[in-house]
Design brief:
By secondary structure, this protein is of the alpha/beta class. It has a single domain (about 1-185), classed as Rossmann fold, CATH 3.40.50. The chain has eight helices and six strands; from the N terminus they run E-H-H-H-E-H-H-E-H-E-H-E-H-E. The chain has a six-stranded parallel β-sheet, sandwiched between helices. Helix 7 packs parallel to helix 8. The longest helix is centred in the last third of the chain and has 19 residues, at about 130-150. About 35% of the residues are buried.
Amino acid sequence: MRALLMIDLSNDFIRLDGALSCGESGLAIIPYCKNLVHSFVVSGDLVVDTRDSHSQDDWEIDSGLFPPHNLEGTDGQQLIPELADLRPMDGNGQWVYVPKKHYNATYATLLTELLERHKITEVHLVGVCTDICVRYTLAGLYDWRAARRYAVDFFVHRHGVASFNAVGHEESLQHFPATFGAKVI
């Protein structure tokens, strides 16, 4: 079975007025992500929506590293409506929300347990930021695969990832195959 991992496709990261917006590059991936999410939903594959879910006193915000963003319960933390509208209404467990507090969506979450439970053999990644949360999540997935000797392939969708740092974005896309064995498609 395949899983689509949507990383930080929230209003705060994607909308131009978001607290930590990726700008135009973030907006540009919406149509691609929408088509991909639709195809995963139609095929019955797993869709995992993982987004930062911060409180004001989380270290990332309290330290001043990043401005307040994706604060729990705010509109900025919500999944962009273009994708939320694709969520199946039957509640069959095909669409799962995994909140995270760190760049790496595998850290202190149930993400890898979920992937194992569903016997996932392919993980497809889309979202933002390519050089931060996508990169560190891919590193976490790589560590899980290596530690568990779990047979899974990783695919990063070039037209489904973005960053506010164009250099970091491109460097990460070049880094993923050689370092994590991920296919950039």
